[in-house]
C-alpha cells in the first residue's frame, strides 16, 4: 500500500498575492476546502506513514493539522478534545467553518479594497532598497536569525523582477527589514542623507525607521493580518518588535498579539508533527524561539505581567545549530552535526543567558540578602556559559582567523555575561555585611566584570571592522559601559583605597571621552556624560 500523502502548506516562496480573488470566498473555494479537510481527516484516520530516514518521526498523538487557504494563509486546526475522540480531527464541516479565512472582511471590519501601487510607492529606490536589505543581513540577521536567508534571497530576486506579484505579507516583511536596517546606519553613511532631509543622524534614523515600520503595518493591514496569517506574517511581526526594541519603543501589546498569531499558526507545536521539510520546520522553530526571546527581554524590564508564554509550548524544540546552507528545501533528513559555530549559535547561546538573566532579575528585585549558595550557583552558571563559547568559537579560530561576525558575537556574549555578573555581585555587595568573605569576593567579581565591560566598549569604539555594529555601540553596549563606570566609582567611594583601584579612574575617564564622542548619535551617551563627569 502506498504511503498516505503528506498535506503541507506552501512555503513562503510559493505564496502569491491574490488581492482580488482573496476578497471573497466563493462556493467553489468552500467546496474545495471541505474536500481538502475531508482528505486530511482520512489521512489521520489511516495513519500517515513516515520513512525511517525522516529527521523526526511524527508524534503518535495527533494534535491537529495545518489548513491552508487558496490565498496562502495558514491556520492550525486542533484535534477535538472531547473524551473518546482518540485525537481525531474535528468534523470536516465544523473544521471548515472554523478555518475559513475571512479575507473578504465581512467580520469584524468590513470589506477593504487594497491599492498595491500605493504600498509599493513607500519603497525606496531599487538601489537604496538593496543596500538597506544588505545592511540588515550584515548587521542584524546574524544576531536575531529568524529567517532562512537563501529562501528570502530567492524571494527578493522575484520581487526585483515583478514587485506586484509578491504577497502582501512578504512586502510587510521587506518593510520590517528596511525599518530595522536604518538603525545600523551611522553619520558617515550616505544613505541617511539620500533618504531623509532631517539634520541630525538620530532624527534621520527615527524618521526612516518610523516610515518603513508604518509601511509594514499598511501591508499587514491590507492582508487582513488580524484574522488571516502565514509564517511570513509572523516573521514580519517578530522583526518589527525586535526593531522597535532597539529604538527604545514599547512593544508589549504588539508582542502579545504576535504570540497569539503564532498559536493560530500552530507554532507552539513542534513542526515535526506536520510533516514539513527542514526549511519550513526551522522557520517555525526560529519564529517561536524569537517570540520567546522577546518575551524574556520584556519580562526582564517590566517583570512578569501575565501568564508565562513558555507554558503554551507543546514540545517545540529549539532551532537546530546549523547554517542555512545545511537546510535544503524539500529535504527531510539532516546528516550535518557541526562542532563549530554556525549562524544559529549566537541566538542559542543568548537564549541560555536570558534564562540565567531571568533568575538574576528575580534575585535583584528582592531586597533581602540572597543565600551565598545561590550567588555561587548563578556565578558558576555564567562561568560555564563563558567556557562553552570558548569551546565553540575556538574550533574556528584554531584553523583560521575567526570571521568578523563571529568575533562580534563572542564580544557581545561576553559583555552581556559580565553585565549579569555585575548585577548579581552589586546586589550581593549591597545586601551582605561589611568585612565578610562574601562581600570581599563580590567586590572583586564586580571590579573584574566592570573593567571587562569597559574594555569591550573600547574595542567596539576603536576597531574599524566593527563599524557595521555601531548601533550596538551606541545602544546597549554604552548602557552596559555606563553601568560599569558607575559601579567602579561607587566601589572606590565605599572602600578604602588600595592598589587594585589604581587603574579605575583612567578607565572611567577614557569611557567618558568615548561617550563624549558619541553624544550626537547616542541618547544614552548624551545623558551619561554629565552624570559621570559630576561623579569623577
Automatic annotation (TrEMBL):
Q: What InterPro entries is this protein classified in?
A: Sec_Metabolite_Reg (IPR050613), XnlR_reg_dom (IPR007219)
Compartments annotated for it: namely: Nucleus
Is Nucleus among the key words of this record? yes
Task: Give start and end of each Xylanolytic transcriptional activator regulatory domain.
Answer: 134-371
Annotated spans, Disordered: 77-107
This protein's UniProt keywords:
Nucleus
- A GO MF term: DNA binding
> What Gene Ontology cellular component terms go with this record?
nucleus
Q: Which Pfam families match?
A: Fungal_trans
At the top level, the lineage of the source is Eukaryota
UniProt feature, compositional bias: Polar residues: 82-97
Q: Which GO terms describe its biological process?
A: DNA-templated transcription
Name this protein carries in UniProt: Xylanolytic transcriptional activator regulatory domain-containing protein
Amino acid at each position: 500500500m502506498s504511503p498516505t500523502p503528506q498535506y503541507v502548506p506552501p512555503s513562503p516562496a510559493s505564496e502569491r498575492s491574490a488581492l482580488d480573488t482573496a476578497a471573497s470566498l466563493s462556493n467553489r473555494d468552500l467546496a474545495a476546502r471541505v474536500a481538502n479537510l475531508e482528505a486530511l481527516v482520512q489521512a489521520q484516520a489511516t495513519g500517515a506513514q513516515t520513512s525511517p530516514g525522516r529527521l523526526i518521526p511524527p508524534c503518535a498523538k495527533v494534535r491537529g493539522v495545518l489548513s491552508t487557504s487558496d490565498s496562502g494563509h495558514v491556520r492550525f486546526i486542533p484535534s477535538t478534545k472531547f473524551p473518546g475522540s482518540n485525537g481525531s480531527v474535528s468534523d470536516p464541516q465544523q473544521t471548515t467553518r472554523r478555518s475559513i479565512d475571512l479575507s473578504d472582511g465581512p467580520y469584524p471590519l468590513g470589506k477593504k479594497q487594497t491599492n498595491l501601487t500605493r504600498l509599493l510607492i513607500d519603497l525606496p529606490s531599487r538601489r537604496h532598497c538593496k543596500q538597506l536589505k544588505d545592511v540588515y543581513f550584515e548587521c542584524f540577521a546574524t544576531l536575531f536569525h529568524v529567517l532562512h536567508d537563501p529562501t528570502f534571497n530567492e524571494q527578493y530576486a522575484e520581487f526585483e523582477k515583478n514587485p506586484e506579484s509578491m504577497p502582501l505579507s512578504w512586502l510587510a516583511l521587506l518593510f520590517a527589514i528596511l525599518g530595522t536596517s536604518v538603525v545600523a546606519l551611522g553619520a558617515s553613511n550616505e544613505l541617511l542623507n539620500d533618504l531623509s532631509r532631517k539634520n541630525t543622524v538620530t532624527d534621520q534614523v527615527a524618521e526612516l525607521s518610523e516610515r518603513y515600520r508604518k509601511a509594514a503595518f499598511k501591508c499587514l493591514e491590507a492582508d487582513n493580518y488580524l484574522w488571516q496569517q502565514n509564517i511570513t506574517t509572523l516573521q514580519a511581526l517578530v522583526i518589527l518588535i525586535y526593531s522597535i526594541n532597539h529604538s527604545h519603543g514599547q512593544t508589549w501589546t504588539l508582542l502579545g498579539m504576535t504570540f497569539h498569531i503564532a498559536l493560530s499558526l500552530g507554532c507552539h507545536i513542534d513542526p515535526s508533527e506536520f510533516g514539513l521539510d527542514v526549511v519550513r520546520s526551522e522557520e517555525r522553530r526560529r519564529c517561536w524561539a524569537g517570540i520567546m526571546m522577546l518575551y524574556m527581554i520584556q519580562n526582564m524590564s517590566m517583570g512578569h505581567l501575565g501568564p508565562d508564554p513558555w507554558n503554551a509550548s507543546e514540545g517545540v524544540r529549539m532551532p537546530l545549530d546549523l547554517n542555512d546552507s545545511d537546510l535544503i528545501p524539500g529535504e527531510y533528513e539532516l546528516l550535518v552535526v557541526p562542532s563549530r559555530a554556525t549562524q544559529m549559535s549566537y541566538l542559542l547561546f543568548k537564549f541560555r543567558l536570558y534564562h540565567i538573566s531571568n533568575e538574576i532579575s528575580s534575585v535583584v528585585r528582592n531586597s533581602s540578602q540572597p543565600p551565598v549558595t545561590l550567588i555561587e550557583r548563578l556565578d558558576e552558571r555564567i562561568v560555564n556559559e563563558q567556557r562553552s563559547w570558548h569551546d565553540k568559537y575556538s574550533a574556528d579560530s584554531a584553523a583560521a582567523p575567526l570571521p568578523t561576525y563571529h568575533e562580534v558575537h563572542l564580544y557581545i556574549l561576553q559583555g552581556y555575561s559580565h553585565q549579569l555578573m555585575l548585577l548579581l555581585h552589586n546586589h550581593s555587595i549591597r545586601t551582605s555585611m561589611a568585612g565578610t568573605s562574601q562581600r570581599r569576593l563580590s567586590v572583586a567579581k564586580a571590579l573584574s566584570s566592570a573593567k571587562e565591560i569597559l574594555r569591550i566598549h573600547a574595542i567596539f569604539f576603536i576597531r574599524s571592522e566593527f563599524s557595521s555594529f555601531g548601533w550596538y555601540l551606541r545602544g546597549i553596549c554604552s548602557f552596559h559601559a555606563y553601568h560599569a563606570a558607575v559601579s567602579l566609582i561607587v566601589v572606590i567611594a565605599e572602600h578604602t583605597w588600595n592598589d587594585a583601584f589604581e587603574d579605575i579612574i583612567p578607565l572611567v575617564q577614557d569611557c567618558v571621552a568615548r561617550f563624549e564622542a558619541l553624544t550626537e548619535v547616542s541618547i544614552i551617551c548624551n545623558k551619561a556624560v554629565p552624570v559621570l563627569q559630576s561623579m569623577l
